[in-house]
Design brief:
There is one protein chain. It contains eight helices and ten strands. The mean pLDDT is 96. The longest helix is centred in the last third of the chain and has 20 residues. It starts with a helix and ends in a 6-residue tail after the last strand. By secondary structure, it is of the alpha/beta class. The strands form two sheets. A six-stranded parallel beta sheet has the order 1-10-7-4-2-3. A four-stranded mixed beta sheet has the order 8-5-6-9, sandwiched between helices.
């Protein structure tokens, strides 16, 4: 059943003009990614546990490439803004997704929007490394997955004291099994602020999804 589902997702991605690659084991992702890159490429990435667990973050930060690091130690707010500007024109932008639907849609939710803005526009190539655990039926399930899994775990990881970090799920789920995307806490530290659904790419070969047969990230 899982093989049929994976095949369906891969075909849907290709139909949506998004390149699709299936890698059964996480340890093989680095070599798959390396084959896509060129020496000296300018690269950046969003915050992603999937990139760390797959070894991709280590690869793209190596001396073979020029990594634009918005989180480097000692960076000032002004310097960070300059990095964001450079990311717009970088060769490769790496990320994961909060969810990937059976219709081949990428669902992403951000607080600051630096990640979803790069996915939507700017970098020449976008490569998303997505674990099998992030497959959902449709966009609504994708948004619900954020409230149930991704947002709470990321708040814990980042040390953000939002209600979901304490509850293990969005506070809106305390009273509603199917909340609106705007439902939830009203704190300024909320990370579910900006929503992006990548339904199709106009530019062929700009976006590639590497779907891993194992679980990765949140």
């Amino acid at each position: 059943m899982q093989n049929n589902r994976v095949e369906k997702v891969l075909k849907a991605l290709e139909k949506n003009n998004i390149n699709a690659v299936f890698v059964p084991k996480r340890e093989d992702i680095k070599e798959t990614v390396k084959a896509m890159l060129f020496e000296g490429a300018t690269i950046s990435s969003g915050g992603s546990v999937s990139l760390m667990e797959s070894g991709v973050l280590e690869l793209i930060k190596s001396e073979d490439y020029c990594y634009l690091d918005r989180l480097r130690e000692g960076i000032t707010p002004e310097e960070q803004q300059e990095v964001f500007k450079k990311i717009i024109g970088c060769d490769f932008y790496f990320c994961s997704a909060n969810a990937l639907t059976e219709n081949g849609e990428l669902v992403n939710v951000d607080g600051f929007a630096n990640r979803i803005s790069a996915i939507a526009f700017g970098p020449k190539k976008v490569i998303a490394v997505v674990g099998i655990n992030k497959l959902v039926k449709n966009v609504n399930e994708g948004f619900l997955r954020v409230k149930k899994i991704a947002a709470p775990k990321n708040c814990v990881r980042l040390g953000i004291d939002n209600p979901c970090a304490r509850l293990g799920h969005c506070v809106s789920l305390e009273t509603n099994d199917n909340p609106e995307i705007t439902d939830g806490c009203s704190k300024n530290s909320r990370i579910c602020v900006n929503y992006l659904v990548t339904a199709r790419q106009r530019e062929a070969n700009r976006t590639t999804v590497i779907l891993c047969g194992e679980e990765l990230g949140y």
